[in-house]
Design a protein that fits this description.
alpha/beta; Rossmann fold; two-stranded antiparallel sheet; elongated
Length: about 260
């Protein structure tokens, strides 16, 4: 993932997908913060979409509160195209004709200008030059469900590869999804070119980039919590052993008295 972002050209266009439910926002926000922060530091233009109805709102919350100290302005540095309906069928439609599948932004403004409907060049900087999905320099999917992850790979990834072009696809996934997504990463050739997994992956990415973001704080709290839990288990075990020995000694003493 780090290599993919470092190799992006100046003012790259990145499709950023928020496909996770609010219940997983704690883990996915922490895992994705370092990645999105890296994209912002590289000056990438972001286009936000989601196949989950609440996804577009989560995306706005993420950029406004989770990724702090950024100067990204909606419709200038990033644009939110909202919800992709239809599940896998909607994804296939999005891959084949994104202009007609998502003609408006989350604000209700026309995303694409031109005669005869929502086609042609966009008035928004993040969408300039985007005629097809393969015109993006990178696709990053934040996902908490293996079926959704597989749908993106099966329905969308083929449209990113062709003669003379190859737009890489990368994923930030929850820990429970990794076993089902990793085979796509380990395949030869790879079907996804970057993978960050859970809180641990987010913390590792933060260490790699050297930028302090959310995962470091979460990881420290997690380690302290695990150490405290381990200490409590040890104390409980010692108390149990002492209680057992004390009970046996009492039995021996009472038996000797008889």
């Amino acid at each position: 993932m780090n290599n993919l972002i470092e190799q992006l050209p100046e003012e790259a266009s990145v499709l950023l997908v928020f496909d996770y439910d609010p219940g997983f926002s704690g883990e996915l926000d922490a895992a994705a913060t370092s990645v999105v922060d890296h994209l912002i530091s590289r000056g990438a233009y972001l286009t936000l979409v989601s196949t989950i109805p609440v996804g577009p709102v989560l995306a706005e919350r993420f950029l406004s509160s989770t990724v702090r100290n950024n100067n990204y302005v909606r419709n200038i540095h990033y644009v939110n195209l909202g919800f992709i309906p239809g599940g896998p069928t909607g994804l296939l439609s999005f891959a084949e004709d994104l202009h007609h599948t998502l003609p408006y932004t989350l604000d209700g403004e026309a995303a694409w200008s031109g005669d005869g409907g929502p086609v042609g060049r966009s008035v928004f900087p993040p969408l300039e030059g985007i005629e097809e999905l393969s015109d993006f320099n990178l696709v990053v999917i934040l996902v908490d469900d293996s079926f959704t992850a597989r749908s993106w790979i099966e329905q969308v990834q083929p449209s990113l590869i062709g003669e003379g072009f190859h737009t890489p696809m990368a994923m930030v996934v929850s820990a429970q999804v990794e076993p089902l997504v990793r085979p796509y990463y380990d395949a030869d050739p790879r079907q996804i070119q970057g993978l960050v997994t859970g809180l641990r992956g987010g913390a590792a990415y933060e260490q790699m980039t050297g930028r302090e973001t959310m995962p470091g704080y979460y990881w420290d709290a997690f380690i302290y919590g695990m150490n405290a839990a381990g200490l409590l288990i040890i104390i409980g075990a010692l108390v149990g052993i002492a209680y057992t020995l004390f009970g046996q000694r009492e039995k021996e003493q009472s038996g000797g008295g008889v």
